[in-house]
Each structure stands twice: as C-alpha cells, then as structure tokens.
Write a structure and sequence with these properties.
Oligomer: single chain
Radius of gyration: 15 Å
Strand order of the largest sheet: 2-3-1-4-5
Mean pLDDT: 88
Number of strands: 5
Helix content: 40-55%
Distance between the termini: 23 Å
Structural class: alpha/beta
Largest sheet: 5 strands, parallel
Number of helices: 8
Low-confidence stretches: none
Length: 172
C-alpha cells in the first residue's frame, strides 16, 4: 500500500484548516502539513506576492505540484489551500481519501478573514468576491469530501472533534 494522508482538510480561506489541522495532528499523534506553507517555503515568498508577481495560473501550477507531492508522501493530517480543488487532477487525487470539507457562511468568513487581510482573491469587494468564490467552489469541495463539517460558531477544538467523529477516527 502506498502512503496516504490520514485526514485531508479542504474548504475556503478562513475556515480553520490550518488551526484545525494542527489540532487534529496533535490529537492523532501524526505530523501536520499544509500545502500553502509548502509553496511559501519552496518559493521563499508569500502567496500574495506570487499572485501579484506571477499571476494566478502560475500559482495554481505550484499548488497542483504541492498537492501531488503531499498526497504521495504525507501520512498525517494534510490541509490544502482554498483553491486547490479547482484543479481536476487534484480532485482525482483526492478520490477515496478521508477528506473533510470545513464549511462556513459569508458572515463567519468576514469575521475570521477580515476585510483588510492579505488575500489576493478578496482584494475588491470581499463579501461579493467570497460569495462568488464559494458559488464556484462549494460543489467542488462537496465532490471531494467524505464528510462536511460546519465551522460556524464552533471553536477549533469543537471542529477538530467533529472531524474525528465524522471520519470515525480515534485520538491518541
């Protein structure tokens, strides 16, 4: 059998993938990995700079490569960037894996992400942009997910427990 992540987290920016992912990894006694962090480390610059300097298509290629590497190598908890599911190949890679979609509504997103954060896809009219992104991405998140866990009005600890319960995983 080949290596595969124990849990893969997908969802929009601000849904808590990084925070919940680290909590899950700790509770399961496995390593945590974030493909956005992999890209930042490999490129030596923030994702917002990559978007500005090279454009979204370039970033999406880097993202696809980062996801391919992480799915092939990582056996712990893996968090994917919010737009990773846009790639058909990435969605195919996630088939059969224990994927949890962390969902939230727009008001929760605004509260968590804020309107002034360095989020390149939310630069103009963040509420409208977020809604448009979610209209395009929600079906893709749902397509790859084994379980959907709502994060609205929940602490990261509560979300982590909900993911464990939904995927029927036991913490250490």
């Amino acid at each position: 059998m080949t290596a595969a992540p124990l849990v893969v987290l997908v969802g929009p920016m601000g849904s808590g993938k990084s925070t919940v992912g680290a909590l899950l990894a700790e509770r399961l006694g496995v390593p945590y990995r974030d493909t956005d962090a992999d890209i930042v480390t490999a490129q030596g610059r923030p994702i917002s700079d990559i978007f500005v300097d090279e454009g979204e298509p370039y970033f999406r290629r880097l993202e696809r490569q980062a996801v391919e590497a992480a799915v092939a190598e990582h056996t712990g908890v893996l968090a994917l960037g919010g737009g990773a599911v846009l790639d058909e190949g990435t969605r195919a890679l996630l088939t059969g894996l224990p994927v949890a979609y962390l969902s939230m509504d727009v008001e929760e997103a605004v509260r968590r992400v804020g309107l002034g954060a360095a989020r390149p896809l939310l630069a103009v009219n963040p509420r409208r942009q977020w809604r448009e992104l979610m209209e395009a991405r929600r079906p893709l998140y749902t397509e790859v997910a084994r379980v959907v866990v709502a994060t609205d009005d929940r602490t990261p600890e509560e979300v982590a427990q909900a993911v464990l319960d939904a995927l029927e995983l036991k913490d250490v």
